[in-house]
Amino acid sequence: MASPVKQFEVNPIIPIEVGGLDISFTNSAAFMLLAVLVTTVLTVGAMRHRAVVPDRVQAMVEVFYEFVDNMVYENAGDPGRRYLPFFFSMFSFLLLGDLFGMLPWVGYTFTSHIIILFALALFVFVSVTAIGFWVHGLHFFRMFLPPSVPGALAPLIVPIEIISYLSRPFSLSIRLFANMTAGHVMLKVVGGFVVGLGIVGGILPLVVLLGISLLEFGIAVVQAYVFTVLSVIYLNDALHLH
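The structure assignment produced for this chain is given below.
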């Protein structure tokens, strides 16, 4: 039986090397591109006619869009809606990345790679910080010392707040990475018992496998939501210095 972590290997589909640098088009890149294409086709195609009485696809896209819109409004208010297209795109990208990994045999979970998630989390962190300075100027530094904190505690509170702030891209990316990786490793291990124990002995592992699979679908949605909603909360902190 193949190693449980073999499913996360990045393999080249179209080998490309430029100046000794490997920039091959890989299976991970293919599924990321697929996530972008599916999101684009569904949203653009569904809203092309903008029917007053929507069909099923348009209704699904509208509900999905309203869900993300409510998420942004509830956590960042009206000023946060300016950045709604980005959060909608990010949530769609992460959700499809999680769900693609649940496809049997052909699926690949690119959200199990820490480098992809860290790059996205770092982009959110840098962008939110830039927005904070753009809106508040140097007053942005006030978020590291809440107004209610006595001045005598500033030498203790400020370093803690700065470390907490700088750790955001790490905590944001590791959470999704750990959940996706652990879940798929567990599916692979339990699936190995189903195959290895035969028809009779594999019944119980099969039931467990089905239960874990259903749980993984839920985790896929929840983790994409958590990544996005935390990013929105970080934007809210930058906009309102909370």
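Interim note for the steering committee: The longest strand covers residues 12-14. The helical segments are 27-46, 56-80, 84-100, 114-136, 154-166, 168-196, 198-201, 203-240.
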